Amino acid sequence: MATRVFTPDPVAAAFRQEALVLALEKAGAEVTVLTTVPHQRGPEVSRARHVSRFPVKRDAQGQVRGYASYMSFDVPLALRLLLRRRVDAIVAEPPPTTGMVTLVASAIRRVPYTFYAADVWSDATDSVDGVPGPVRAAVRWMETTVWKRAARVLTISPGVQHRLEELAGRRTSFRMIGNGIDTETFTPDGPASAEQGPYFVYAGTVSEWQGAEVFLDAFEQVHREHSEARLLFFSEGSGRDALEATVRERGIGRVEFRDKIPPSMVAAHLRGAVAGLSSITPGQGYEFALPTKIYAATACGTPVIHAGEGAAHDRIRDNSLGWACDYDAEQVAGAMRAALAGQDVPGPEALRSWTEENASLAGCAAKAASEVLATIDR
Asked: Please, what's the largest Cα pairwise distance for the chain?
């Protein structure tokens, strides 16, 4: 498995890949993970048996992000893949540059590869201002080429699958296996945080396509009426500096920005929150996304306030998982007021039950493992 992030890095891709490794090991496979040295060393480690780590360039927030960071992983990865003594199959995680390295290595070694397409990176690139046209075109070409040559492409939702088919055509190698959360870590039972007062939690990356600034606009209104309420961001990403600047410039009180924390600590904070927060910026082409932060909250029995149209909006509305709002500060503020007042709040048992049945990471990983093993000529 070739992945630039892996547990204990506190990001969704790391947990998704670890779950797949555990499912493959449970099925009898021997898996070696080729990944990076984690940003922060701590008590939480990976449960995978064989993890090979190599130093990588990280940005100021500790993320493997940007051309230089990707190259610092991808160039050594090429040698690491080619020098492995025995390889029957390869699984790769984005970015597309890692996919291209995997494509070449698999061709040289004459083994199949599976690409885990949890996101459409070329769409995300299109949503970022200032990216040169040739770079956008190159990312699109790399991504679609990797999809077309893969023995399997694993997608996490019908929306992602549809977008792949729009860009690369329908293919039998595209398999929708779903996405979820670790329901053993994210539970209603367990220690809660020691945070004071009612609070909202945004846990996850903030960037152009997430559009988390809508929560600042909404919370600014709500805080005038509920001075004890707090808004906590456990986040990294390209949009964090802008959010912090907005809070300073407008003097919005009771908003705190903290670094990303281990999953067990995220779960503790979500258990005590009045609501988890999720958003998708409209018009960026990312309406098909289903942010994992939704499932993290519901697995803990905590409802979600989502801002934005698309798959996430529909899932929360149709399954009574919280409040599905337009990308509109007034609507979001109304949902925050309802959450603080305890109005129309779904019960924790119902939220947990739905998550176990529909968004278990272990269940999705078992499907993914079956698809990977099916590519091997045994």
From this structure: 65
Task: Indicate if 239 and 317 belong to the same structural domain.
Answer: yes
Q: How far apart are CA 277 and CA 271, in angstroms?
A: 13
Give me the number of domains the chain comprises: 2
H or E stretch at 324: strand 322-325
Measuring CA to CA, which residue among 145, 142, 102 is closest to residue 2?
A: 102
**Does a structural domain hold residue 186?**
no
List, in order, residues 6 or more apart from 115 with CB less than 8 Å away: 91, 92, 99, 102, 146, 147, 150, 152, 153, 154
Contact between 284 and 208 (Cβ < 8 Å): yes
Range of the domain at 77: 12-180+360-374
E strand or H helix that includes residue 242: helix 240-250
CA pseudo-torsion sign 365, 260, 93, 26: negative
301 plus 318 within the same structural domain: yes
> Which of these, 57, 129, 120, 59, lies nearest to 94 by C-alpha position?
120
Tell me, yes or no, whether 6 lies in a domain: no
Report the pLDDT value the prediction gives residue 4, as an integer from 0 to 100.
Answer: 96
CA distance linking residue 274 with residue 346, whole number of Å: 11
Nearest CA among 220, 352, 204, 346 for reference residue 274: 346
Residue 368: beta bridge partners? none
Residue 189 lies in a domain: no
Sign of CA dihedral 148, 150, 152, 157: negative
Distance CA 68, CA 58 (A): 9
DSSP bridge pairs for 116: 154
> Residue 275 sits in a domain of what CATH number?
3.40.50.2000
Q: 245-301: per-residue pLDDT in tens?
A: 999 999 999 999 998 888 899 999 999 999 999 999 998 888 888 999 999 999 999
Please, what is the end-to-end C-alpha distance for the chain in angstroms?
19
Distance CA 78, CA 173 (A): 24
Residue 350 lies in a domain: yes
**Would you state the structure tokens that stand for residue 183, as one six-digit string?**
């329901």
